[in-house]
Design goal:
- Helix content is about 35%, strand content about 15%.
- It is α/β, with parallel strands linked by helices and about 375 residues long.
- It folds into two domains: about 140 residues, Rossmann fold; about 190 residues, NAD(P)-binding Rossmann-like Domain (Rossmann fold).
- The strands form two sheets. It has a seven-stranded parallel β-sheet with strand order 8-7-6-9-10-11-12, with helices on both faces.
- α3 links the parallel β1 and β2.
- α1 packs across α2, α2 packs across α14 and α3 packs across α14.
Length: about 375
């Protein structure tokens, strides 16, 4: 049933003006959205989310800084949709609670969806959408930046110089152009990473469960078996979704086949790497360096300010003690362009859901 406009609400015209700027749709279309889907509960809100979502689409956004889970689902009461991120936990109990409150759309403002019980969502009649490719360039560029920073010890040099230490000891790196790069996963991000490293003059090989021979031929890149990639590469970079098949892709067995001294970069999903096995490889010296933007137990840690507190995760604490480990807190996506695209796609899908239309191609789960 369409919602009535209350006397306390801003005028429809104000909403429609905002909507047209955010989505480019007509006022008539905007009015349908305003009437049929007015309220969105937005969880795990950060400051940059307000900038891109507040007022967008003529929708009533209710921003919550806490994450969504079964214990916080009641905050979605009165909402037609929830907007969630990677560390919100939408398991069956949470989704059941949301459906009971009248929520009919779960809008993920991210590409990953391993935090959502999709079977339960389908059984409950919930629409689930995501943003599959908000900025492949952002993640690809961060991947390369992490490798360059770790290799040339830029983070260490920066801290030294700020303390007026201008010595160069311990800062020796290697020429990337003289190395072999192994790209595991050649979706949009993996392909960009391969092309960027190719631009350095490095040799690039790849592995993917679903290889694209035409792309590889055009780029001069060879697909190889995973074992061959691990044994032959100086740098291994991961760009796969987290699935039951890819969970702990790099574990004790596969890391044991890694070329001695190789570097590992992961800007994809933390669960692709067995952290215990990674620590063992670092301690043994077999792994030359590790750059991570994701961590398999990052929930409740990444995206939070824990400065001044004791880090309770022993494995992450151990990783941070290694001088050849560089960790960023899941920021690879964080560019103005990516945030704008996330908002555009999310708002568009919320509007389409309200109008009973199909979601944007490739976004429905």
């Amino acid at each position: 049933m369409p919602f009535a406009i209350g006397a306390h609400d801003p005028s429809p015209g104000a909403y429609l003006s905002l909507f047209s700027r955010a989505s480019g749709l007509t006022e008539a279309t905007g009015l349908v959205v305003y009437l049929r889907m007015r309220t969105v509960s937005f969880f795990d809100t950060k400051s940059y989310d307000h900038e891109h979502f507040a007022g967008a689409g003529g929708l009533d956004w209710r921003f919550h800084e806490f994450r969504l889970g079964v214990d916080t689902a009641a905050a979605a009461e009165g909402a037609d949709a929830v907007c969630v991120f990677v560390n919100d936990r939408l398991d069956r109990p949470c989704l059941t609670a949301l459906a009971g409150l009248g929520v009919r759309h779960v809008a993920l403002r991210c590409a990953g969806f391993n935090n959502v019980d999709l079977d339960a969502a389908r059984q409950l009649g919930l629409i689930v959408t995501r943003v599959p490719a908000y900025s492949p360039h952002a993640v690809a560029e961060h991947t390369v930046g992490l490798l360059l920073t770790l290799n040339r010890r830029i983070h260490r040099a920066y801290n030294r110089v700020r303390e007026h230490n201008f010595s160069l000891g311990g800062l020796v790196g290697f020429d990337v152009c003289a190395r072999t790069i192994g790209v595991v996963g050649t979706g949009k991000i993996g392909r960009l990473v391969a092309q960027i490293f190719g631009g350095f003059g490095a040799r690039v090989i790849a592995h993917d469960p679903f290889p694209d021979a035409d792309w590889a031929r055009a780029q001069g890149i060879e697909y190889v078996a995973l074992d061959d990639l691990l044994a032959g590469c100086d740098i291994v970079t991961l760009h796969l979704p987290l699935t039951p098949e890819s969970h702990h892709l790099l574990g004790a067995s596969t890391l044991g086949r890694l070329k001695p001294g190789a570097y590992i970069v992961n800007t994809s999903r933390g669960g692709l790497i067995d952290t215990k096995a990674l620590i063992a490889g670092l301690k043994s010296g077999r792994i030359g360096g590790v750059a991570l933007d994701v961590y398999e137990e990052e929930e409740g840690i990444f995206f939070e300010d824990l400065s001044g507190k004791v880090l309770q995760d022993d494995e992450l604490s151990r990783l941070l003690t290694f001088p050849n480990v560089l960790v960023t807190a899941h920021q690879a996506f964080l560019t103005h362009e990516a945030l704008g695209e996330i908002a555009r796609v999310t708002v568009e899908n919320l509007g389409r859901c309200a109008r009973g239309e199909s979601s944007l191609p490739g976004t429905a789960l």
